Amino acid sequence: MNLHAFLREKNFFTEEECDTIEGAFTKATIPKGEVIVRFNQFSGRVLFIEKGLLRIFYLQDGKDITHFFFNENNFIAPINSILGRGAERYQWEALEACEVSIIPYDEFWKLEERFPRLSRLVMEFAFHMLDLFSEKLNILQFQSAAERYSYFLEMYPELTNRISLGSTASFLGITQQTLSVIRGKKK
After folding, report:
1. pTM score of the predicted model
2. Arithmetic mean of pLDDT over the chain
């Protein structure tokens, strides 16, 4: 879904407002495998994913750890760069070729001044992110590996065939071998 259709679906804006907001964004294509935000770099852009799949990850003791996945109809913003005005703790990688709409963070807030209802959209996004973080913390702390995978299937039902075994396992905090065993039992 393109940004205009997404905004109209929210019923916060008129057709003309959607045109203006969408016009402030720049369309871009990100090739599969490209890292678009790098660890320890500043990135002050807000993205809306129209098509494709992004993975947010970090490196810990030489291991690649998946933090979250973001697919179509999601906004994503580098929180540390935007709020703290510092370097990013995470990297963003395109797991698929992506079509996105991009706007510099400062320009996004200028839009919000013109269209205060954008604040509602930002609040929805913030609450959604808070919920994702809370749920992930819960599954990592209190659930078995099999329960984590079941939750993953509920959380990302449309993504299971789009994400590699390794990325899924690192997201769940388990080994690929453990995930293979769990998946084998589910069949």
Report:
1. 0.87
2. 89
Q: 179 by DSSP, 3-state: which?
A: helix
> Half-sphere exposure of residue 14, counting CA atoms within 13 Å on the CB side?
4
**Coil, strand or helix at 15:** helix
Tokens of 135: 């749920």
Share of the chain above pLDDT 90, in %: 52
Q: What is the mean pLDDT of residues 120-126?
A: 85
pLDDT for the residue numbered 84: 62
Residue with tokens 């994913």: 49
Rounded to whole angstroms, the Cα distance separating 147 from 88 reads 31
Q: Whole-angstrom Cα distance, residue 139 to residue 125? A: 21
Handedness of CA 113, 117, 121, 122 (dihedral sign): positive
**More confident site: 103 or 79:** 103
Residue 49 structure tokens: 């994913």
| CB 71 within 8 Å of CB 158 | yes
What is the C-alpha to C-alpha distance for residues 164 and 50, in angstroms, rounded to an integer?
21
Fill in the DSSP letter of residue 47: E
- What is the residue-wise DSSP string for 78-137? -HHHHHS-S--SSEEEESS-EEEEEEEHHHHHHHHHH-TTHHHHHHHHHHHHHHHHHHHH
Query: pLDDT digit string (tens) for 7-33?
Result: 999 888 999 999 999 999 999 999 999
